[in-house]
Design goal:
Layout: H1 2-13, H2 19-24, E1 42-44, E2 49-50, E3 53-54, E4 58-61, E5 69-71, E6 76-83, E7 90-95, E8 101-107, E9 109-110, H3 112-125, E10 130-133, E11 140-141, E12 146-149, E13 160-167, E14 178-180, E15 196-204, E16 214-215, E17 221-224, E18 228-235, E19 249-254, E20 257-263, E21 266-268, H4 275-278, H5 281-287, E22 292-293, E23 307-308, E24 321-329, E25 335-344, E26 359-361, E27 367-371, E28 374-378, E29 387-394, E30 397-402, E31 413-418, E32 429-435, E33 438-441, E34 444-447, E35 450-455, E36 459-465, E37 471-474, E38 487-493, E39 499-506, E40 509-510, E41 514-516, E42 521-525, E43 534-543, E44 548-556
Parallel strand pairs: 17-25
Antiparallel strand pairs: 1-4, 2-3, 4-13, 5-12, 6-7, 6-10, 6-11, 7-8, 8-13, 9-12, 13-14, 14-21, 15-16, 15-18, 18-22, 19-20, 19-24, 20-23, 24-25, 26-29, 27-28, 28-31, 29-30, 30-36, 31-35, 32-33, 32-36, 34-35, 37-38, 38-42, 39-40, 39-43, 41-42, 43-44
The structure holds zinc ion.
């Protein structure tokens, strides 16, 4: 259904679109099975807008439970397992003979021989956190073979299975790879419910950061007095899925002629952060409502990027009235539509843009700058468009902010601050960014009285002292008292730089402690590992500023 819709606009798209080549490629239908045994209900669709990335797969609902069996989507072999307290948590990668890779995230554990291989690797490396590649003959799998159990590990906000299909990329199956919409591979999925257009906004072109959109009123009639672009907030519901999933495709027509078309069948992982530049990022970070903007920035181009007339800005003649049609489609072709009547009146005020004070930056050129004790090195394409950068100093705090587009940098840039904090050794000094009430400390290197960090934020930067050691706190056992549980829980936290490393030793030998980043909790399974009488459990934690805490607990069975 979806492909038919695309064909209708192909004549228009072909001139503008790198996508036309993608659509012509046939994706194998029915090759992959549903990795769960339950019917597919989604709490997130492919390419949904997130802060800093497009959602790279499907979030499959598991009924609020963990440990649902997860099956290999097709024949192949386990090519990689990664485990992290953050992000995707416990991740399984299966490589298939047709070149595609399926990825399963937030797992609770791995089945059979895979689980044994993972545990062996963790003890060999003495680390819960691993990234292990396997060769084709080590762990072959058959389509439908039990490979793992669903969970809630890593940055997951509730039990579910995150399922991806990837293509291409380097040996790590991540760098330079492209994620594809698994629903395009013919997985059984029911959706008879049409999307909802929840909001439309008109953004006057003013040339200043932080311009907010004006809501199109419910009667769908609005008057403008100059050039503008449109913001569209649309969501989709489906049987068995949550109501606020992403839509598949958005079309905007000006007086019946295609003006803007947006779809995301494929997202190159390297460019996924560009999502920040195609939505109203400021509004999104405040409300989680993602308004897709018709305006396109030159440094935010990719195969998902909207295909629009010129730069996606409406320039209507004064005194004229036009009809703007907005259509939102889901993957099954269900469509929601809204038509807005826009009247353009003579400009009442001078709309010429007042240039902001600051330093002009070209988005496609590197930029080096020195300001008081601060020095910046921005690589090419740190920004998505030319901008005016404002640097201000207030005491020990320096603020770095673009004035045209208020979007976080695409790339990490180098930020150095010269100086020292009274009585604080360099190794415990960190570069920190204060944004609103939130302080982020960066991993900082020190040389010649200068502290340097790779940062990916705009905001107010300063040097801060991190001399406080991490805190280790038992949750479900007490020192010296007999244990009531076999899985020990220990909270490990740090005030500023964050937990960098941790190790646990039971009676002198390294013991696996699973770390859940979102709750800052270590889980240690002691089943069958405790001596009859006294046991020593040593926990060591370091933070990102070189502070170490070591605690030993005496525990009895
Ligand atoms: Zn997900």
């Amino acid at each position: 259904m979806k492909h038919r819709i695309i064909l209708l606009t192909c004549a228009y798209l072909v001139l503008h679109s790198p996508l036309s080549t993608l659509h012509s490629q046939e994706l194998p239908q029915g090759y992959f099975r549903n990795p769960l045994n339950t019917s597919i209900g989604l709490s997130a669709t492919f390419a949904e807008f997130r802060a800093g990335h497009f959602h790279s797969g499907l979030d499959m609902r598991t009924g609020g439970a963990v440990d649902l069996p997860v099956y290999a989507a097709a024949d192949g072999y386990v090519a990689r397992v990664t485990i992290s307290p953050w992000g995707g948590g416990k991740i399984l990668y299966i490589k298939h003979p047709n070149g595609y890779i399926t990825v399963y995230m937030h797992l609770n554990g791995f089945a059979g021989a895979i689980g044994k291989a993972v545990l062996k690797e963790q003890y060999a490396q003495q680390s819960y956190i691993i990234s292990k590649m396997f060769s084709p003959n080590e762990l072959p799998v058959k389509k439908g073979q039990l490979v793992a159990y669903s969970g809630n590990t890593g940055g997951s906000g509730g039990p579910h299975l995150h399922f991806e299909i990837r293509r291409g990329g380097d040996a790590d199956m991540y760098t330079h790879s492209t994620t594809l919409d698994p629903l395009e591979f013919g997985l059984p999925y029911t959706d008879n419910i049409k999307p909802a257009i929840r909001g439309l906004k008109i953004y006057p072109v003013s040339g200043n950061a932080g311009v907010s959109g004006i809501d199109v009123p419910a009667n769908n009639a609005i008057t403008v007095d100059g050039p503008f672009y449109l913001g569209i907030y649309a969501t989709d519901a489906a049987e068995g899925s949550t109501a606020k999933n992403g839509v598949d495709r958005i079309e905007v027509l000006l007086d019946g002629t295609p003006f803007f078309t947006y779809t995301t069948e494929a997202v190159p992982i390297d460019s996924s952060r560009m999502v920040n530049a195609i939505i109203d990022y400021t509004l999104f970070s405040r409300t989680r409502q993602a308004y897709l903007l018709t305006r396109s920035l030159p440094g935010a181009k990719g195969p998902w990027i909207p295909h629009c007339m010129g730069d996606g800005i409406f320039r209507l003649k004064a005194g004229s009235t036009h009809r703007i049609g907005v259509k939102a489609y889901d993957i099954k072709g269900n469509c929601a539509e809204r038509v807005v009547t826009v009247t353009c009146k003579e400009a009442t005020q001078n709309t010429t843009v007042k240039p902001s004070r600051g330093i002009a930056i070209r988005y496609n050129q590197p930029f080096n700058y020195q300001f008081h004790t601060l020095s910046l090195q921005l690589p090419t394409h740190t920004l998505y468009a030319d901008d005016i950068l404002r640097c201000e100093s207030d005491g020990n705090i320096v603020t770095v902010k673009p004035t045209v587009n208020d979007i976080p940098p695409h790339k990490y840039y180098t930020l150095s601050i010269k100086g020292s904090l009274p009585g604080v050794p360099a190794e415990h000094t960190v570069v920190a960014c204060i944004n609103g009430g939130r302080t982020v400390a960066y991993k900082t290197t020190h040389a010649d009285g200068t502290h340097t960090a790779q940062v990916r934020d705009w905001g107010s930067f300063t040097l801060m002292a991190d001399t406080e050691e991490p805190v280790i706190r038992p949750i479900n056992f007490s020192e010296g008292k007999p244990l009531k549980v076999s899985t020990l829980k220990i909270k490990i936290t740090d005030n500023l730089a964050g937990v960098e490393t941790y190790s646990c030793y039971l009676n002198g030998s390294w013991i696996l402690a699973e770390f859940d980043g979102k709750t800052a909790t270590l889980f240690i399974d002691t089943k069958g590992k405790l001596h009859e009488n006294k046991n020593d459990l040593r926990v060591e934690v370091t933070d990102g500023a070189g502070n170490l805490t070591r605690r030993t607990f005496t525990i009895t069975r």
